[in-house]
Amino acid sequence: MQRLPIAALVALAALACDEPPEPPFVPEPLGRCADFDELRRPLFGDLHVHSALSLDANLEGTRLGPSDAYRYAQGEEVGIQPYDEDGNALRTVRIGRPLDFAAVTDHAEFLGTIGACTTPGTPAYDSSQCVSFRETPDSAFIALNSLLARPQSRAAPPRLCGMDGIHCEGPARDSWGQIQDAAEAAYDRTSACRFTALVGYEWSGNPGSTLNLHRNVIFRNHVVPDLPITYFEESYPEGLWAALREQCTEGGRGCDVLTIPHNSNLSGGRMFEPIDRDGMPFTAAYAEERRAMEPLVEIFQHKGSSECAPGESAGDELCGFEALPYDSLAESFLDIRGSYSQPRDFVRHALGEGLRYEAELGANPFTFGIVASTDTHLATPGNVGEAGFVGHGGAGHSNRDGLPAGLPDNPAFNPGGLAVVWAEENSREAIFLALRRRETYGTSGPRIVLRLFGGYGYSASMCDSGSFAADGYEGGVPMGGELGASPGGPPIFAVSALADPGTPDAPGTPLQRIQIVKGWLEDGEPRFAVYDVTENPDNGASVDLSSCEPTGEGASSLCAVWTDPDFDPSQRAFYYARALENPICRWHSRICLSRPPEVDCAVPESVPEEWAGCCDSAWAPTVQERAWSSPIWYRPEA
Amino acid sequence: MRTLRAALVCFALGALLLAGKSAASSLLPEAAPIVEVVVPCGASEEEIATRVEEAILVEEGLRFGWAESDPVIRRRLAMNMAFASGEPASDEEERVEAALALGMQRTDPVVRGRLVARVRALLADPGADEPDEAALAAHLEANPELFAVDARLELVHVVVREEQAGAMLARLESGAIATEDAPSLGDRIPLLPARQYASASLLERRFGSGFGEAAAALPVGRWAGPVRSSYGLHLVFVLRRDDGEVPPLEAVRDAVSRDYLARTSTRRVGARVAALRARYVIRVVEAGPS
Asked: How far apart, in Å, do the first and last CA atoms of chain A sit?
């Protein structure tokens, strides 16, 4: 026992009598970072990261926790699955360049299950489900995750958690505390502002036939609800938003939050379905609520692209990029290939429908800005390189039980992308405000810099002015913004992209072109068009598949000032930019180069399962990495 | 203490009293509460300490009235009584009262865990233990690397083609062109501003590998180069170089304070638990075969 002065004991006595009031919230002011830039700079991050606190990741053998994920994001080497009998990781990974920010977004639904099943003495420890958790993880994976696919009216936590989930509440609090503590410890609050960790989690409902409605919930700062709101308490997105309002934004404590839907490509038409939880058509109130709570959408990640349906909209041949031949999580997990997802599953379609709702209701529920992320289940945020891809687990392959003999992941999947924000500095406040105003974009992995402005008075020589950003802000709005009625002429868009500079080990790839994707409402129907706005859309660049060496020239920087040739001032519209790199070898093609010589795709019996992806024509051998900007909306009545 | 306990017969109940040390004991109220802690026979010192700490934290949580007010505990107690009584439909308030009367708030593991967690969170509260100026200054001095600002360069660069570089450099060196006008002579890269104020590492990330290091080695106040980046060749004029430094405490007080509190949290909880322990008389009871 330690001897304390009388004053200390008196203080503790007082502590034991009255709970101290919560200190008033003081917003973090902008301007504390040495690199503050009022014209904003691009910060690269990952807003979709799972660690061992996610049930699926845990059962698949991931052992790295939230703190480890942040260590990886900042450039430390970490060991990943599989592990030997002594607990030593058999693979190590290190990110080529540290990220600027990240959010660990573990699945909220089973945060308490893991602790309840792995801590001897808990009331749930000896339950049959916990025994299965420990002894037959593959069965437990299916049995427990299937709870997320139950009809929304019957959503309930696992039996092991007891009545109303009481046995799991304590462990869930521990895990939620661990997530918050890890973010706080990783957040650089000094003026160096080297790294920002945001507190977040994933709401993981996928009702029906595992139709994905998942949302990542990202908080503005350290003030967060007592516990995450899960699918088991609120099984509809409307319920999630209402609960977040009640427990976060309306509390007057400084809590603020937004939600980011992802993998609409695996939602079976439900992510952007035109009805609310009661099966009724949207109202203006619904549209306003969704617009306020859900300002962003994740357009790309490990489980494919959600930009646009292959074959849809104006013959956009680039919609085939990382398109999955599945329509639900279960199909993707079990590799049950059916038809591609329906057009309603894609972001471009939703943006078009949003125009229609705005015309009909006066409010647009689908005013989405764009981000991308990885959805890693190995706690390796930002591990996005096509070269040296080790897999991401989750719905992909686990390497829990041994080193991969061939491809380390389902070849349908990819290394995922990055979320980019244009922010004044690398702080929680600056990043959250950028997310809120949708001054964001997503990349399929490379650190392409992409900037888009829209206005009415831009000079045709803006690309050469030497003050591109200042001119952009002064004469219009950045990506994510809204343009009001035209004062006379069509809007002008200034767009520029800078190639990823790369690293000595992984040089960047030159740019091929920039496109503007337009959606507009004509006779009440959404229409789409794609315009090449920089020269050389077909520069002849290619890849030597025998070595994966790229061939041909590309650009290190592209810029254009573009005016819509088909502009009709009476038609509401949106415009977003898409910057494309030259083609490179896809991750699986690179690994396939090292397959054993006896594996001959022309002789099917010579191809073992682990190398089958190398011989499957469903997977394109090359990819054109890209970046998608948030749209700029044209609203004629504004 | 260890010797005394070892002498006990473990198949029967054995008990020993632990009070606070003499100095703390002198501060105890007249009737210091007695807490009985049951431990398995043969429990190690560490196990006993853990159980004693848990028991004290439970008692502290009960003193706050959390058994009656905490929603999680109330639900748990009501559920327990519904199960015990076989009357799940009875009024929750009545069930909670009945559970409390039976002492379930001290025996149920979920309730105990919840009480311990809440008291621990309260004890970890940094508000009651704000470091003073001297503590902050000492923490900054002991951990300068945590708060140091990187060295920074302010520079202007001109993007040139290889065949132009020599002549352009000579022209710029002649002083015929004002530094701020020089970028207009070269190629424009709209997203790579001509004027930069950044650390070498940030320059590396913006321009590509090697550029930041090369720029950091250039002289201040005159044109130099060309320096190669991922985007081509650059002639560079370093306007100034700010050395990296540890800022004064006034400039980083919040960050130092947060870091100090985070690092001292464990120690703070430990000290506060120890102080609480001094307010109780502990009866350790060994039970069951070893």
From this structure: 70
CATH for A360: 3.20.20.140
Interface of A with B in 183-222 (CB under 8 A): 184-185, 189-192
| pLDDT of B26 higher than 90 | no
Alpha helices in A4-46 (DSSP H): 6-17
Is B271 inside any structural domain? no
Question: ∠ CA B180-B165-B201 to the nearest 5 degrees?
Answer: 65
Under the banding of pLDDT at 50, 70 and 90, the label for residue B1 is very low
Specify whether A570 is located in the same domain as A636: yes
Q: What is the tally of structural domains in chain B? A: 2
* pLDDT of A484: 94
Could you identify the residue written with the tokens 């890849």?
A543
Residue B36 has a pLDDT of 85
Q: Residue B22 pLDDT more than 70?
A: no
Q: Where in the sequence is the domain holding B32, given as residue range(s)? A: 2-124+277-287
Q: Using alpha carbons, list the distances in angstroms from residue B124 to A87, A180, A408, B120.
A: 32, 15, 44, 6
Q: Residue A567, class by beta-carbon neighbours within 10 Å (0-12 exposed, 13-18 middle, 19+ buried)? A: middle
Residues of chain A with pLDDT under 50: 1-21
> CA-CA distance, A364 to A38, in Å (whole number)?
30
User: In terms of domains, do B55 and B104 share one?
Assistant: yes
Domain identity same for A426 and A476: no
CB contact set of B6 (below 8 Å; sequence gap of 6+): none
Same domain, A441 and A347: yes
Closest approach of B98 to chain A, Cα-based (Å): 19
Domains held by chain A: number: 2
Please indicate whether, in this complex, the C-beta atoms of A121 and B272 are within 8 angstroms of each other.
Answer: no
Per-residue pLDDT of B2-19, as tens digits, reads 323 333 344 333 444 454
**Residue matched to tokens 């034991």:** A16
CB contact under 8 Å between B150 and A192, yes or no, is yes
Mean pLDDT (chain B, rounded)? 81
Whether B208 shows a pLDDT value over 80: the answer reads yes
pTM: 0.83
The token pair that represents A112 in the structure block: 């308490």
- The whole domain housing A403 covers 41-114+176-445
Q: Please tell me whether residues B12 and B97 are part of one structural domain.
A: yes
Please name the member of A9, A166, A508 whose beta carbon is closest to the beta carbon of B230.
A508
DSSP 3-state assignment of B269?
helix
The confidence score (pLDDT) of residue A451 equals: 98
In A, residues 249-288, which contact B (CB 8 Å cutoff)?
Answer: none
- Same domain (yes/no): A509, A416: no
ipTM for the assembly: 0.86
The pLDDT of residue A82 is 95
Tell me what pLDDT residue B3 has. Answer: 27
Residue numbers of A between 91 and 110 with CB closer than 8 Å to B: 97
In a domain, B229, yes or no: yes
Three-class SS of residue B264?
A: helix
